[in-house]
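Lecture 7 notes: from sequence to structure.

We start with a single chain of 336 residues. Read the sequence below before looking at the structure.
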Amino acid sequence: MKAMVLKAPGELVVDEVARPSLDTGQVLIRVSHSGVCGTDLKIYNGAIPVNYPRIMGHEMIGEVVEGGGSFRPGDRVIIDPELFCGACFHCRIGQTQLCPNGMLLGRDTNGGFAEYLTAPTSHVFRLPDSIDSRTAPLIQVLTTCLHAQRLTNIFPGESVAVLGLGVTGQLHVQLAKARGANPVIGITRSLAKRELAQTLGADLTVASGEGAIQEVLDATDGRGADLVIESTGVMASLADAVKMARFGGRLLLFGIITETEGALPFYQLYFKELALVNARVAKSEDYPGSINLVQRGIVRLEPLVSHVMPLGELKAAIEMLSANSGQRMKIILEHR
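Now the structure, written as tokens:
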């Protein structure tokens, strides 16, 4: 089969490789569409080390070729790329996302930037016909947002501020609105992303910067937001989140902060008695709920796709990620 193979950092080639063999309890899937993620960029440039050669890709959908369990050839499915052992302490108590023996398809083993992929039947979920294949890979991203929001209550009428309105920030806006939050405040310096957030349900959008904190306070009767979702992964944004939250409020740390040091208003963190919730990836149980939200139109994915490209242009797609263009949202690759 043809696959996009990473031979070394920055060395990505189209190659002919063996089709993966099917083990007991697995299904063989012909991949039709996949999404390009920041994790792929970090693997590509060597920031996340992997064993080479490696086929990247962990946001993918396709059709079953050989079925296991209740799956039949032709079933259109999405794959949960987070594998877990099922036997360790964390798996036994339902924290499969924290499994120390876990693996991510596309990082620890070969992933979806190829013609075919095998996955355990427990990690494969049918897709309804009503969900477009060009947007369906985004459901994997939605599961991580849903998992995060499931870690904290949002009561109807509570205020939610979302810092960062990239793909995940836009999903958080929609989920918070669906859970009854009011107002939902989206914050970013990009005018286009603020306008998009308003079409997806944000009650108010604010340009990030020095005035953003005061605007959030003004929109919440001077109290601050009940919940602030930090979705940029930048230390300075987390500092703003502390200042935007009300006394006794909550912070949901969703963006992955890789900085090892930085300035934070630690006294405010203490004095406000803020609760911090940190989220990591998702669970398989988040897939049916995410699929249902998209199928019912509660979460819209199509406005979040800015580019659709052939699989062979993966390198160009990754370079678009590294350019960090404000106009780019999710890039979807077509495999046929």
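The chain has a mean pLDDT of 96. Keep this in mind for problem set 3.
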